[in-house]
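Record Fringe-like glycosyltransferase domain-containing protein, 191 aa.
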Amino acid sequence: MLKTFEMGFKQNIKWYMIVDDDGYIVVNNTLALVNQYFHDQMWLLASVLCPHPYNHGSSPYFLRICGGGGYLISSKMAKYILPSLPKCFNYTSSKWDNGDMKYASVMLSVCLTELLNVTLTHRHEFKTVSPLKQITTNNNNTIKFSFNEKNLNNPVTFHYVKPWQKQLIVWKLYHGIETNLTVKNSSNWLT
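=>
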């Protein structure tokens, strides 16, 4: 992250997007989201209401970046947090075992909220689940898939999107190119 920020500063990057390698980005929705904010103000946009991976404390939830769904950092926020990133590891490793810090989003969240008093802005458009969770099949093995405002709210990202074939199908379904797909009985497409 340090090198990404430093390179971005040289190129006048306005927003940084961090997404897992199994994430799917809906570019048009991402652009619409960042156009609601100013990059020269301090913003960290993410889904921030997610279960605590270690169940520390009395609540199973705490305010943190749900890393799998990705997050956006404005250039102003990046410049603010960059000098403190090396301190973050020391601060967070004193709270938990180093093995726990395999979740970089947890480490970053703790550092930003507790050490730097950064406000995390919750945006429901960052989806921490696969879009495949929204698929239902009927007795004819026809897949029904719908993106609508009620259940997905203009998604910016999805997590756990597997092979490229599934990404292509999801993309086609989302953009209305496909509305129904027939899957053979022996298919393991949903696994």
